[in-house]
Amino acid sequence: MSKRGAFIVIEGLDRSGKSTQTALLLSRLESARIPAKLLKFPDRTTAIGKMIDSYLKSQSDLDDHAIHLLFSANRWELASSIEHLLAAGTTVVCDRYAFSGIAFSASKGLPYEWCRAPDVSLPAPDLAVFLDITPEAAKARGGYGEERYEKEEMQRRVREVFRRIGEEIKGSGLGAWVWVDAGREKGVVAEEVWGHVELLARGVEGPLCRLWTDEIPA
Ligand code: Z5A
Ligand code: MG
Question: Where is each Thymidylate kinase-like domain found (predicted)?
């Protein structure tokens, strides 16, 4: 039976190095001659993505529930292409995914279960790598920018929700979730990320799971 591509998600706090690490991972996969594609959420190029971009830059205002649903819709827009890529044997590396959706909206005070609901049954990653960094260390990397949510207090709450999501994923048997100390030098972090990804990237035999649908109770 031919293997499918692996679905790898890189999550983490602001400035934890997600974009840096996803780019390094992609070149490493390419050097190993493993077909790979990099995706990023939010994908600001689609019509929905443009609304999200305008909101994040504070050029428009939206109800918290409405923006949450737009972030989720932005993932659903790409769900079938993710499935096709994986089925064709391409490894998909994703810079943020549904876990960011829950973490940020729940940190604003929306109920956790409500935040999770629109992402239920999206393609589930085979591996989620969480780049962990203290809000203080993240701030030292040039400080927070101009976009919404880039405030230390918000990042602290987001980190707590990510911790809950990670524990639940680990306890459910739905893919794997690993924590990586992202406060270290880029190359050291990249080496650890590669250690988690390498075997999976050689191809996955089992079927693709669906987020919080194919959950195996602990
Ligand atoms: N959001 C949401 O609310 N709901 C959702 O469903 C989704 C997202 C998907 C925009 O996301 C916002 O959308 C985000 C969450 C929310 N809001 N916040 N906060 P985004 O992904 O577009 O945000 P971003 O601006 O691309 O990424 P980022 O998180 O700020 O950064 P990063 O990708 O993690 O880090 P980086 O760009 O790789 O590195 C940051 C800097 O640190 C850069 O100068 C690097 O050179 C440096 N760096 C990286 N690694 C290191 C190490 N190891 N040492 C020293 N310096 C380093
Ligand atoms: Mg980034």
Answer: 10-192
